[in-house]
Amino acid sequence: MILAYAAGAAILFGVGSYLLLQRDLVRIVAGVMLISQSAVLTLIGSSLTRGQAPIAPEPGRPVSDPLPQALSLTALVIGLATVALLLALAHRVAVVFRSERRDALAANEVEHEQELSPERQRDQDETAGPPPRPGGSR
């Protein structure tokens, strides 16, 4: 049974890593989500023990540990919030730059930097003030 959990976590991690290396932003977010879920599955698989619920255990019988289940629930909630934030950011990037591909975003960023370079140079010249006089300020 633990081997099935390990195999499932390995498959989820492998597919998530593959998606993380893609060029589309939505696939990158899906890769992050799958890697997060593989961590949760690993945590659940590593804590498999047989025992009673820790609410009212009988004396002398094994009790299961509730901590991995609580950590898994916390990881699920944090992972869901992270995926929601990443999807919102990917949507905003797609709206602003009109592309979801990393290559197009990088080209757009280089183009934008080239447009801003003369403006930045002019702003730096204006804020620098007049050049210092030779011989000090006396």
TrEMBL record:
Pfam families according to UniProt: Oxidored_q2 (PF00420)
Keyword Lipid metabolism: no
Basic and acidic residues bias spans: 107-125
Topology with respect to the bilayer: Multi-pass membrane protein
Region (Disordered): 107-138
Membrane spanning stretches: 6-21, 28-49, 69-90
Subcellular location: Cell membrane
Compositional bias ranges of the Pro residues kind: 129-138
Predominant location category: membrane
PANTHER family found in the cross-reference section: ANTIPORTER SUBUNIT MNHC2-RELATED
Similarity section: Belongs to the CPA3 antiporters (TC 2.A.63) subunit C family.
Protein name: Sodium:proton antiporter
Species lineage: Bacteria, Bacillati, Actinomycetota, Actinomycetes, Pseudonocardiales
